């Protein structure tokens, strides 16, 4: 039996919400080097603002991020963008290579980061619940308009709840993984 278009659209929006959380959590510094830390950094080069990964190769080596710049002319602007960012790391330049050492996190900073990731997760939970509410209203309207039988509407409501439960479980898993990563010493 085919899934109602409202439920399919809601499921897709929920998956996008989970994906957005995954991406945001990747950008939260947890005491170890990850190229995802630099994804949000934009550099003014060639007259436009460009993501850093379009100007350099970013790799992680232990607690160090290595930015291998392809164009020597861009080294200075990338270094300035890294200094202006809120990463809390000072770049060290050596020719075409910029190194960023990720400092150890203090207990206070770890607690702040845990609060921050919990807030990010709660924001996405709210998005998922809002998607569910909107889709339920659409299903109910279709049932009242006679476009669906009450059995079909009930099945769609159940499908919608299963999709919501799945998204909520994935958000909880992502949050637990990130909290464990942050609190790890």
Radius of gyration: 22 Å
Mean pLDDT: 86
Unreliable sequence segments = none
- Helix tally equals 4
Described by strand count, sense and barrel closure, the largest sheet is:
4 strands, antiparallel
At the fourth CATH level, what is the homologous superfamily of the largest domain? Answer: Ribosome-recycling factor
Q: What is the rounded distance between the termini?
A: 50 Å
CATH class of the largest domain: Mainly Alpha
What helical percentage do the residues reach?
Answer: 55-70%
- The helix/strand order is HEEEEHEEHH
Might you state the CATH topology name of the largest domain?
Answer: Topoisomerase I, Chain A, domain 4
Please tag this protein with its features.
two-stranded antiparallel ribbon, 2 domains, about 180 residues, about 15% strand, Topoisomerase I, Chain A, domain 4, alpha+beta, Gyrase A, domain 2, elongated, single chain, four-stranded antiparallel sheet
Tell me about this structure.
Strands 3-4-6-5 form a four-stranded antiparallel β-sheet, with no helix packed on it. The longest helix is centred in the C-terminal third of the chain and has 38 residues, at 107-144. It starts with a helix and ends with a helix. It has 185 residues and is α+β, with helices and mostly antiparallel strands. Helix content is 56%, strand content 15%. The protein folds into two domains: 5-27 and 106-183, Orthogonal Bundle (Topoisomerase I, Chain A, domain 4); 35-101, Gyrase A, domain 2 (2-Layer Sandwich). Helix 1 runs antiparallel to helix 3, helix 1 (5-26) runs parallel beside helix 4 (150-183) and helix 3 (107-144) runs antiparallel to helix 4. The mean pLDDT is 86. Strand 1 and strand 2 form a beta hairpin.
